[in-house]
Structures are given as C-alpha cells and as structure tokens.
TrEMBL record:
Official protein name in the record: Chromate transporter
Mode of membrane association: Multi-pass membrane protein
Pfam families reported for this sequence: Chromate_transp
Main localization of the protein described in the UniProt heading: membrane
Keyword Aminoacyl-tRNA synthetase part of the UniProt annotation: no
Keyword terms, alphabetized: Cell membrane, Membrane, Transmembrane, Transmembrane helix
Compartments it resides in: Cell membrane
Transmembrane stretches, start-end: 16-37, 57-78, 90-111, 153-186
Family classification: Belongs to the chromate ion transporter (CHR) (TC 2.A.51) family.
Organism: Blautia caecimuris
Length: 196
C-alpha cells in the first residue's frame, strides 16, 4: 500500500542527488554561488521550496560554521525528504569537489607550473566575480520583493557597514540576529496584547 509513496520518495531523492551533484560539479565561486543555483533549481524549476524559505536557508547557511554549500544542502535536503534527503543532498554536494581536489592534488606540481592552467584560472576568476555579483543581486532583489522594509534596511546597512566602514561580517551577522530576535519578540508581544 505504501509502494507508490516509497517510489515517489525514491524518485525525489534521485532528483535531489542528481540536482545537487550537477550544481556542485559545474559551479565555481564557492558556496554563495551554489546557493544561488540551488535557489533557481529548487524554487523556480522544481517548486519544492518557496522563495522566502530559500532566503531563510541562505541566511542560515552563511551564518553557521562550515561550508556554505554543505550547510545549504543540509537545510534543503531536510526540508525536501527529511534525514534521507539531507544525506542525499550533502553527498551530491561534496562528491564533485572531493573528486576534483583529489585529482588536482595528485598532479599539483604539473598544474602549478603550467602557464595554460594559470591562464585558465585567471579567466575563471573574472567569471566567478561576475557570477557572485549576479547571485548577490538576485538574492538582494528577492529580499526586497518578499521581506519587510526592516529587512531591506538591514541589508542596505550591512552593505554600507562592510563595504564603506570595513566592519567585520561577524559583527554584522550578530547585530542582524539581535535585530531579528527583538523584532520577533515585539511582534509576539503585540499579537498577545491584541488577542486579549
């Protein structure tokens, strides 16, 4: 009786694994870029996660210790298929870098002295910078559309504090977390007062 449900879950896990594997294998520029591609895949293409939830996942993934891509894979996998989804998404995310770095480490001396590899890496740096800017603008626009004016103010303030005044990202994240917590407490208190 539970065979169709089990088949559906296995199909979902397979799609999750292949999606995270593909994204991880063909994305350069780190976790921030991968989060953007995960958003396109799981929000826009597959419709497994809504926009606001993905923005929350991106914030959590970047705020927690560890690799951003793995953190995002944990959150997305758990949301989609629970514990099995989390393991599947993490495996799909970590396999390509592990394989690529293992191959590079074996031939590092040949890669390090090759002018061709050096030229390829310089070209990739420019492409990665453009991709990171695209993802930042994409997530920023999504925040403007789906979040409150306070969230937009925090986003703009965080940018100014980091870019202009060179305030550490750690302090900015902690301050944003405090503001979000205070806001939640005020909203809950207001709802309690109204419901009386």
């Amino acid at each position: 009786m539970d065979t169709p449900l089990r088949h559906q879950n296995l199909k979902k896990l397979k799609t999750l694994f292949l999606s995270t594997l593909y994204i991880s294998a063909f994305t350069f520029g780190g976790g921030f870029v991968i989060v953007g591609f995960m958003r396109r895949k799981f929000v826009h293409d597959l419709h497994w996660i809504d926009e606001e939830e993905m923005l929350d996942f991106a914030a959590l993934a970047q705020s927690c210790p560890g690799a951003v891509a793995v953190n995002a894979a944990i959150l997305i996998g758990w949301k989609i298929c629970g514990f099995a989804g989390m393991l599947t998404a993490v495996l799909g995310t970590i396999l390509p870098p592990m394989i690529i770095l293992s191959v590079i480490s074996l031939f590092y001396s040949a890669f390090a002295s090759s002018p061709l590899i050096s030229a390829v890496l310089h070209g990739m740096e420019a492409g990665v910078a453009a991709t990171v800017l695209d993802v930042a603008c994409d997530l920023g626009m999504a925040t403007v559309k789906t979040k409150s004016s306070l969230s937009v103010f925090i986003m703009a303030g965080a940018f100014v504090l980091n870019f202009v005044f060179h305030v550490s990202v750690i302090y900015i994240i902690l301050a944003a977390a405090v503001i979000g917590t205070v806001r939640l407490l005020i909203i809950r208190r207001f709802h309690r007062e109204v419901s009386r």
